User: Which sequence fits this backbone?
């Protein structure tokens, strides 16, 4: 229980470089929580897309990734922090991508 509370208080985060490693070794899946128009402009290939406002009602789409980590990204990190908190509170192993999409693409 204490470990769970710590995760919610001190949200697990990951750097772009480490995220690339985890995606390449297939231990994590990327989740884009930005809006549809933002995703049309650019996105990380292979990432899933669920806008943060829809995440709670679409959690069932992520069940098949519950044995993997889920790295959540947005433009700057604010929405992805909210989404990471939602995922952790629903039992997912989730990480917030520090610096948003640009930290991964650089």
Assistant:
């Amino acid at each position: 229980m204490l470990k769970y509370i710590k995760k919610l208080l001190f949200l697990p985060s990951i750097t772009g470089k480490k995220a690339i490693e985890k995606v390449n070794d297939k231990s994590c899946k990327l989740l884009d929580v930005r809006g549809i128009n933002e995703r049309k402009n650019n996105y990380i290939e292979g990432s899933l897309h669920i806008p943060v406002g829809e995440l709670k009602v679409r959690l069932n789409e992520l069940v098949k990734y519950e044995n993997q980590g889920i790295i959540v990204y947005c433009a700057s990190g604010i929405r992805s922090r909210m989404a990471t908190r939602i995922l952790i509170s629903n039992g997912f192993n989730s990480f917030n991508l520090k610096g948003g999409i640009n930290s991964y693409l650089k």
